[in-house]
Amino acid sequence: MDFDSILPQVGSFGPYQKFIICGVLLPAVIPCAFHAYSQLFIAARPGHWCRVPELDPWVLEYPDVVRNFSAPLEFRDGAWRFSECLAFKRNYTDLAEIWRTQGLSHATESISNDAEVTSCKDGWNYERKLFSSTVITEWNLVCEKNSYATVALVLFGVGGLIGNYVFGYLQDFWGRRPSFYAYLLLEILAGSLSALTWSYASWVFFRTLVGVTVPAILASPYVLAIELVGPSKRVFCTIVSNIAYSLGLVFLACIVYIFRDWRYLTLAVSLPLFLLFGCFAILPESPRWLVATGKFDEAAVIMRKMAQMNGKVLPPDYEEYLRMKVEAAVEQATPETRTYGIMDLLITPNMRKKTLIITFIWFANTSVYVGLSYYAPALGGNEIWNFFLAGLVELPTYIFLWPSLTFLGRRWILCASMVVGGVACLATFLVQQEHVVMLILYCIGKMGISSAFVVLHWLHLSCIQLW
């Protein structure tokens, strides 16, 4: 049965759908943004240099002086910088005594710049102007352990791949609503437990569990939204879902600004999500899924609520009406003589061309969007402010796309978005020393790739329908 043919009987986009989408499903997307990018700050790597125990009494008050005494200069990233993994071999006991008894100026005169260097023996000192504590500072994941944070991020992404595969089946088996709340509960518990971990390995384990849930938390509200409305309003659902995601990035920056300790930050982006369970009684199951699985009684109850709020009147025997429509559709259906698989995407020249082009564009868009989002804190200046702007600049893009997708078509908007975003990103290589100009170009690039992400989804669906 074509569910879209009966949806107008209860209202395909009335007050009921607007309330559920904007009041419930929109906030439900926010947890995805919280947990997808909070690891940028939880595992932020501050500036650091080798710790010298004899100079500890002055490290808080004179960190730059202590670093100058202990860390040699090295040419790194195109400039001379203090070494993060090497220290001068000096008699720091005598140096500390001179500083204590005769003052800083005499201590400075007593040092020589030709001393030998050695690796860090007693840990590291960290800059704590922006973050009081991160996973990096907690377990000294620097120098020979420099790759540990990247490994954690990779495992987080692998968890997302597993979650996409597993929870896609669970959605069809359990239904949209119980699946979403199952993902949400797992995300909250794993996220909260990661704040209580005692080692890097245990933290990575729980962060991987969080990664398993992130794609499903994003997809479930979106799927439920488009299944509640008619085809003409699915652009609205896509735009609203992306707006909610971008708002999540903006809110995350605000939360990071308040909580600078990684454990408190982890709890701050996890525990408040329990509030979403307050919407459990309000959020409906997808009537499309209920009808498709033969649960006509439950589907009829939800559709009566939809009709009542949308000002429609349904007959008393509406459940039987749904059952008859499905049975009639089954009787009229042509028996399927062939099963379809992934190779059918490549079987004809036309479909093969479209599949390869869209696959390449998906890969390019995903790589650039995620890369730009993760790169925001590394632009220079205030990391939190950069990330805030990276989320904020996406919002005007979606507002512009709302009417454009309807009146201008998909293909040209996609091409223009990717060209603008790509040119802006490439141009940043020419202005690396101009922080403000580079930040403006970054924002333009982020706007371009964000709009391409929205359009690509609809172009993909159009190609499948044409085939």
Automatic annotation (TrEMBL):
Record key words, sorted: Membrane, Transmembrane, Transmembrane helix
GO molecular function: transmembrane transporter activity
Domain named Major facilitator superfamily (MFS) profile: residues: 80-467
The organism's place on the tree of life at top rank: Eukaryota
Topology of the protein relative to the lipid bilayer: Multi-pass membrane protein
Keyword Transmembrane among UniProt keywords: yes
Cellular-component GO terms for this entry: membrane
InterPro entries named in the record: MFS_dom, MFS_sugar_transport-like, MFS_trans_sf
Location of the protein in the cell: Membrane
SUPFAM superfamilies linked: MFS general substrate transporter
Membrane-crossing segments per the record: 148-168, 180-198, 204-224, 236-258, 264-283, 356-378, 384-405, 412-431, 437-459
A Pfam family it matches: Sugar_tr
Protein name: Major facilitator superfamily (MFS) profile domain-containing protein
